Amino acid sequence: MDDDQLLRYSRQIMLPGVGVEGQEALQQAHAVIMGLGGLGSPVAAYLAAAGVGRLTLVDPDHVEVTNLQRQILHTDADIGRDKVASATDRIAAMNPACRVEARAERLDDAAMRRLFADADAVVDGTDNFAARGAISRAALAAGTPLVSGAVIRFEGQLTTFDYRDPGAACYHCLYGEGGGDEDTCAANGVLASLPGVVGSLQATEALKLLMGLPTLSGRLLILDGLAMQFREIRLRRDPGCPACGHRHAPS
Q: Minimal CA–CA distance to 148: which of 140, 137, 159?
């Protein structure tokens, strides 16, 4: 790193467990962010600001006025634009050294597997069970860690599925095939700031993952935003899981 980079990231470099080595690991890392909405906005902003060298942004949607209450990368001037284009502009202004690939498309399973196999981490910021399930299966097939977050109403959830570990639980071990199109913010509403809270936690998990620091793997963090309480439950792999049951856990 040059002197300008050392100065830019100095408050992070001084942290125990980070140092110059951790910062260089971030600069060499590639993270994929699926969805540039309420969750993906803070994720993309913090990963870029923290010095992640390469981001791939995936979202087929356009900016709508109803997004602006919580999707902080986008403004009134962006209404009608691709979300990935709006996000790319904000990231370029925030940290020009961050290389961004914008994909304004809905990837099929094979395309996701290819993309994830080239990444060090995947962060899921989508808002429905079908998309989350497909993303998890592709990350599992690629063996790429997945940081998963969800918000609805006043509630949030967060965990990291470390698919490099054959004994780790997967998304389907936790949720099965449950949920439907009605389990979305569009159908149920969400407090404006809550995606920012969970998205910031997702970014924190991703940064730790990329630097080799401990993560939430094996634990699910649940947030009750109304009572402002956090609780945690252990995640265990389901040997009969249709998604990951074929893997052999270490003895």
A: 159
